[in-house]
Structure formats: C-alpha cells, structure tokens
Inverse folding.
C-alpha cells in the first residue's frame, strides 16, 4: 500500500520521484496522473444509554476480566479488529476499475488506457484557456 519513494529524499538526491500503483504494480512517474484512495474501517457500535444500574456496577472487576481476556491475544489482531486504515496509490486504469466495484476490485481486470496524460500539461491548458477568455 502506497509504496513509493520519499519525495523529499529523491529530490535532494536528484532522482525523479515515482510511485507504484497498489493495484497492478505499474510504476507511476511523478507528473503522471495518479489517484489516492483511503479506506478507513472502524468497529461500529451503538450509542450507549447510561442508566443508574450502569453507574453502580463494579467497573474495576469488569476491566480486570477484560484485561485477563486480552492477555493471550495478539495486540495487532486486537487493533485490527477495532480499526484499520489502508492508503492506496492507483494508476488511472486501476482507479476506473476500483470505482466501478470497490468491494470486488481486481487490478487484472482494469480498464486499460482510458486516461493517460501529464497532469501538469492539463493544468497549463486550463490556465491558458482562462487567460484567453480574459483577453
């Protein structure tokens, strides 16, 4: 997920910054169009309604029992069961496949070659068009 060179380190070393598509593994040059996806997964829970009986319970005993139960468990599994975040860099082909069916994303089925262009060139064209309209 989001495997790429450190942009600042690459610039300081005089290297071109590149990214790797997390869908298909294709290298994405610095100025090429890429997409960032952030998937934030959290355990869902209902809002608690606290009553007098809840306030009178022995919370210390409950916490001790919970700690004892968690002692033998893998801390990473406990964390993953509550919260997980994924960050993806996607090439245009994988992006289009992803948005068509995010729950069944398969990079090998990516729509190929629809939107390959230089983002800087695209922005320059927009600026030039805006300047032409002002004149």
């Amino acid at each position: 997920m989001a495997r790429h060179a450190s942009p600042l380190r690459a610039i300081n070393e005089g290297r071109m910054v590149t990214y790797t598509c997390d869908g298909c593994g294709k290298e994405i040059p610095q100025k090429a169009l890429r997409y960032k996806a952030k998937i934030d997964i959290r355990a869902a829970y209902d809002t608690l309604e606290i009553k007098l009986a809840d306030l009178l319970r022995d919370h210390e005993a409950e916490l001790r029992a919970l700690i004892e139960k968690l002692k033998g468990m893998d801390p990473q599994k406990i964390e993953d069961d509550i919260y997980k975040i994924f960050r993806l860099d996607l090439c245009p082909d994988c992006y289009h496949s992803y948005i068509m069916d995010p729950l069944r994303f398969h990079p090998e089925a990516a729509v190929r070659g629809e939107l390959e262009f230089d983002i800087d060139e695209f922005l320059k064209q927009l600026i030039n068009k805006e300047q032409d309209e002002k004149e």
In short: The CA atoms of residues 33 and 119 lie 6 Å apart. The mean pLDDT is 77.
